[in-house]
Design brief:
The chain is built from one helix and six strands. 24% of the residues lie in helices and 43% in strands.
Length: 88
């Protein structure tokens, strides 16, 4: 059940509904983003402590790096993403 389609602007200025919030599990936030190669899902409890949030921030940063590596990308010093050099 889609609760809240989010409108994500594309490069040509048009909007896309490829990422959305869904109600799948009671007490959980669930967001799904559909890519050309499949769905990416992020789910977390609706109630979090400050410690939970800190832990999730670290984990999300780690997951971002894992995703970049699996896509053949790296984060540069300035935070932009570029291709991984084969010489590294």
């Amino acid at each position: 059940m889609i609760l809240e389609p989010s409108l994500n602007p594309t490069k040509d200025g048009k909007s896309s509904t490829r990422c959305r919030k869904e109600q799948r599990v009671p007490g959980m936030n669930v967001y799904i983003c559909t890519t050309d190669n499949g769905d990416a899902t992020l789910q977390w409890p609706k109630t979090l402590t400050h410690e939970d949030l800190e832990m999730l921030e670290v984990w999300l940063e780690m997951m971002k790096k894992k995703i970049q590596r699996s896509a053949g990308q790296k984060e540069t010093i300035h935070g932009t993403i570029g291709p991984i050099d084969k010489e590294e």
